[in-house]
Amino acid sequence: MKIERIELCELSVRLRFRFETSFGVEQDLRKILVIVFADGLEGYGEVTAGHFPGYSYETTDTAWVALRDYILPRIVGEDLATPAQLLERLRMIRGHNMAVAALENAFWDLQAKAANLPLWQLLGGVRTEHPVGASLGIQKSIEATVNLAKAHAEQGYRRLKFKIKPGWDVLPLRAVREALPDMNLTVDANSAYRLTDTRTFHELDELGLDYIEQPLAFDDLVDHAVLQRLLQTPICLDESVHSPEDTRKALAMDAGRVINVKVGRVRGHLMARRVHDIALSFGAPVWCGGMLELGVGRAHNLHISSLEGFSLPGDTASASRYWEEDIVDPWLDAEDGIQRIPTGPGLGVELRRDLIERIAVRRHTVES
Ligand code: OSB
Ligand code: MG
Question: At the topology level of CATH, where does 5-116+351-367 sit?
């Protein structure tokens, strides 16, 4: 397919809730939509980076510059047959995985549309429904945490994940465990702890959590392996895994036993699939992480969740949990904790141009 034109569109959006994690609070976000034109078709991708470098060094602004100055000029006008060829054209660009992934994802969408297949099928998926969990931010009180947990359990979410940080961990989780004795519960520290916080880890280990997500440094595997040996609860790696090679090394050294696959963090679907395959070969379950995506990113997350090894609920909750309005039709909402993966060609969602027009704050177009 000859890539004729690529459009970037930055959108200003407001989350329905204030989302607090160990690295900060977010509510007003800026997201980049990537639209790729080829053969009379359009493919869509979304940059998953946050607006602040708290989760990763990538941000909306770094992705904008990386796409505009380095990535798009290498792709517009090219005749590309596969996502692998697209990645090969970008091989000399080190890092900036979320920027690259948005374009790679749009190219997959294009290819699926050209083949008249839903994206999940092109990716090798095996199911069209997937159980989902919810990621719940740090609340103002234990009571608020328990109430939020109960409300989400009632909505049918299959797993609840709680953001924790030093000083906000064992007590709220114990209260939630008492209120919901049979619920699948997890915690996500976003790298807020050190190996010396052993007491907290041992107390968390008593709560029957499905896993403890990214307790230690964002760039660490060694200490995670030491910690995993001390715990019954599996460690799930998020920030520390950026590639299939990272996955192999992490699982080989037992730095964790579960992998959170984020399509943006690992440079797109092709690499996400390899991460999945490696995890499967180690017998490690994977699940699809979330980055507070709008409908385009959320749809990509649902399609990759169709692969066999995504055996745990994803952070692919209902769009209406996050947004008053979303940029795609139809709404990607779960019913009783199950998301249906769209079955139309490509992503299987349409862009709401009127809304995009209203919330766009910056645009850039490159033509061949
Ligand atoms: O660590 O999984 C994370 C959101 C932004 C950045 C990092 C993370 C998250 C979430 C929210 O946990 C997941 C979602 O509901 O989209
Ligand atoms: Mg995480």
Answer: Enolase-like; domain 1 (3.30.390)
